[in-house]
Amino acid sequence: MSHTASTQHRPVTPARRTAMRPQAGARRHGIGFGLVAFAFLTAMAFSTVPTPLYPLYMARDGFSTFMVTVVFAVYAVGVVVSLLLAGHVSDWVGRKKILLPALALELLAAVLFLTGTALPVLLAARFITGLGVGMITATATAHLQELHAAHRPQASTQRFELVSTGANIGGLGVGALVAGLLAQFVAVPLHTPYLVFAVLLVLALVAVALAPETVEEQFVRPSYRPQRISLDHGDRAGYLVAAAGAFASFAVFGLFTSVAPGFVAGSLHHPSRALAGAIVFMVFGGAATAQSLTSRLSTAAKSRLGQAAQAVGVVTLVAGMHTADLAAFLAGGVIAGIGAGVLFKASLGTVAALAVPEHRGEALAGLFLIAYLGLTLPAIGIGVATLGFSSVTVMTWFAGILLAVLAVLALSGRRASAR
């Protein structure tokens, strides 16, 4: 018998079993990393499924642009409520005990979307979707980071950063793209996308259930309290500038996930649902790609690049609306999305550097609260304005206000550098 054969049949001694455990555990965490990434991507994608469908709701049930923004705003309210009440609880009870109920909430929302198109149903479904997303974002990101560290303890965090960014920001684009394609080429466009994602959410629940837990539950838990929010972290002016950058970034994201598909279908006369989904995908895809490619830039450089790209993108987008040029509108949207993604990453980096570790959660909670106000308030303002003015006029106002905010940010950045 050869040496190879004898090695293959050698008994597994206790010493060999102990040596094999870390390798088996690492492999299990590596599989778990992929499972949680799939669930994270699915959850974020589901949140933008209605985006390319809004023009259909407007045509079928007579919803105005203002009503679409109300439906969208209810989602943002759900996200903020969930972030404040449950976004931090997984540190005590474990990641899976938050992720599983969050995915169940999204599945419930998908079922509600399937039951009808009446306004109360849409409002309830979007609010529940927001609750689920608010629970998932921070929890899934932390879970991925811990699974990556357990799988590849000596590796850099680049893999984790790429995957978490792709699942989070990229997922928002994927959901709109898939929904738009299904609505365009498959029967029953207001039901089929939700049915497909209901199946995917069931698979996501199974994936998270199979993934390993990375937080040991605390049997003596701290007294529950909502996530604290603080805007004062040593450099109040620096924090407020970062928060303003987050507000401006999410204003662009809110535009493209609420009223932009209606603008394309109405003002630009391109009613294709596939096109509406593709536009959102390009905006968020550009944001995610830019965040990954600019990881080595300094925070100040990211901020300057993001501000410049957003300014150029928004001006190009509005020019495309004035000339009814779809290509210019698309180019402006992609450039603005790139700028928004980079500027938001710079804001996150600034706040993470300003806050001491024991108050970092409070600092980030404040940042996300202001960011989601940016997601909601401009979209509602645009919806209200369209009740009395044309879409092109309203978008021109939006661009002017956003450019003024970006100019203030640039000036504040120069003053900070001089100091």
From TrEMBL:
It is a multi-pass membrane protein. The chain crosses the membrane at residues 30-51, 63-86, 98-119, 125-144, 165-188, 194-215, 236-260, 272-293, 305-324, 330-356, 363-388, 394-413. Keywords: Cell membrane, Membrane, Transmembrane, Transmembrane helix, Transport. Residues 1-10 have a biased composition (Polar residues). GO terms for cellular component: plasma membrane. It is found in: Cell membrane. InterPro entries: MFS (IPR011701), MFS_dom (IPR020846), MFS_trans_sf (IPR036259), MFS_Transporters (IPR050171). Its main location: membrane. The keyword Membrane applies. One of its GO terms (molecular function) is transmembrane transporter activity. It comes from the Bacteria. Residues 1-23 are annotated as: Disordered. Residues 31-416 form the Major facilitator superfamily (MFS) profile domain. This is MFS transporter.
